[in-house]
Request: fold
Amino acid sequence: MIGDELPAADEQVVAVPAAQVSANLARLADTVARLRGEVDHAHAVADGRALIELAKGVLMERLHCTPADAARQLETLAERAGLTPLEFAAEVVGEAAEDRITEVTQEFLAQAEGEESVAVRLRTAESGVLAAGDTQRVAESILEHALRPLGATAVAVWLAGPDGSLTLAGSAGFSAEEAARWRYVPPGVATPARNALLERDTVWHPTLSGAGLPSIGQHTLAGGGRVAVPTGTGGRIIGVVEMCWPDPLPAEPGRQRRQLEALAELCAHTLDTSDGVVAPVAAGGPGDFLGELVDFVDGLHDPAVLLSPCLDGGRLSDFRIHHANVRFADPGGRPRSRIVGTRLLETYPLAAGESGLLDMIQRVYATGEPFRAESMAVTTLVDQVPLTVLTDISVTRFAGNVLLILRIQDDAAKLAVLLQHAQRLGRIGGFEENVVTGAITWNSELFALYGLPPTATPLSLTELAAHAHTDDAQGIGRFLRAVLHHRRPSSTAFRLQRSDGVARHIRVVAEPVVDGRGELVAVRGAYQDVSSQHWTEVALAATRDRLAESEQESIERNRLALQLQHAIMPPAKGPVDMPGLRAAVRYRPAEKEHLVGGDWYDAVALPTGEVLLCVGDVAGHGIDAATGMVSLRNALRGLAATGAGPAQLLTWLNLVAYHLTDHVTATAVAAVYDPATRKLRWARAGHLPPIVRHRDGGATTLPLLRGSLLGAVRDVAYQEEEVQLAEGDILLIYTDGLIERRDRPVQETVSRLVSLVKGHDGGLEHQLDTLLTYSTADTDDDTCVVGIEVTGGR
Reply:
């Protein structure tokens, strides 16, 4: 201030050099210019205050809202229009006579988007929102007027709770049962809406199934896209708007993202008046409540500061340190008077660095979900030198403010707590016995080892034998003579007989303490409960032979399963020429013997002149999977002799798996090829569809026909389809061991396989070898690939 720059009249003026006077005058001129600017700004604000209040009154009358809501709406609309609140207030007042508030704001959106249809949709949606009195009607209006033209079929508006939970405040496009089932999402459950809440940004999922997250409508709209947009004002997130499409969305949102964010903003004013969102204010008003919050911070035993948000143009830019209690100690040693009233980044600029402290504070302020961390490194500048200390941090939101607790760790106290935990985990009890005075000191863990209450009288070393098993008396005697008479450290193990009847295996170690003359004055040491170790060694010795026997049985069982599998499904098989086609097989067992699976294949010439082709995969590994594979393979061979089609064969085979096997489930593809017409009839039971490589070099995947896996349910209807093949076409049927990866969705790995088939121009066998060679599967499962090349004429 000016008083800080000029000396008072009664102060002694000391002569200074001319250069110093010039520098002082320059600083004084800068100060005067700054103060003149502040005065001019104050006059401008005073002149415009009446206009802004008038605009707020217009919005209150048109929107039927409170003064606080009108102020927030004025700031939000001005920001979206790219105008200052005063400029936008002038437009609102100027257009009030013709009731064109909504047109003014949405004409800007139409210009920004460059699409007249977008402006019409947003204008219509906002009219519905402003007329609605609750969030449910808001959701219905947004879906009807804005989202359906964009292809969306459902919308859910979530209210964010202070604990990170989500409550369904409104929805449209979902059944009443689905909305009731998703009425409340507890904190900690990962959903698209929660991810948007935590990231404080729009979350774009091309498909819900690809995201792997549960959410409302997950069964009916799993293959469609999801967009979750957080909504709120002043940097504080009030809720999330989740919009649903029946079909996949593009990976890049493009210009549509801004439209959806604008729609989400329309929900903020209804959510902000929902119960449980706006913190209660004391009867005396916000100022009184803030004063009570300061009193609360002063009453805390932990060092704490109260942070108030700094909103520049309606956006959160920083936090101001409103108050610090007397227990707060600045890591840089500065007094509280130099910290209170400053901005957080001015006082602690490194909070925005690697520690992430500022980001955590902003997240808590936005979402209301508390944050706590132990041993977090906080760095501050002390005379431009970075000083890092370890602190325990707690961040909580209170009525639009943030309570920050920073407890600097004390090394001595931390080591003491660490020692207590080490003694507890190691079941170690320490003691010290003064042989001169007879005083004995035990820690709490030693009382617990002996089964005594903490108020009991500690026992002397000379009483040790009376509480031990009689067989251990000789060892205890040697231990006492070594410590008490020979004055050297010693240890021994014994069985403690407690008064409650519990016997424990204890190891005691002690050392003598002597004075300057070599006289024994005390003995100190420790007891450790080694019962668990003792009984573990006994149990290990008793079960070692049984483990060896079980391991041998497991080896024999795996060897039997592998032999059975290789006898029926050899790893490699030469090409087989059949009427009208040429078949080749590549079978690769799992690398690990204990993963022997149930992959199977077959190619059989039927009495009708047709050819049966099939590939299957029994769930599980080991001897059960191998025997299940044999049962299904032989059953399908017998059923095929009836001349039935693939769908009927799978229907019968499902009954075999359901009734005649021991809980076997499997996937399969069954096909019947007619060499005379080159037509292939096929059906699938939960299996990946085949791939056809055409003679012109192209490759396609057959459609995903309806049909669940074998053995799951009793009555299943399987869909059948016919494919016309041509000479030179190759049909590839494979199991998931060829493509399955833990880090990729199935759709992506199938697409890569189709690309690999397209890029190959060799023969049938070379084609199969290439697929096995370039397979990127990482599950170490069995792999089976059957290739059929059409060779015959009509």
Notes: The chain has 23 helices and 27 strands. Residues 1-21, 97-116, 274-287 have pLDDT under 50 and may be disordered.
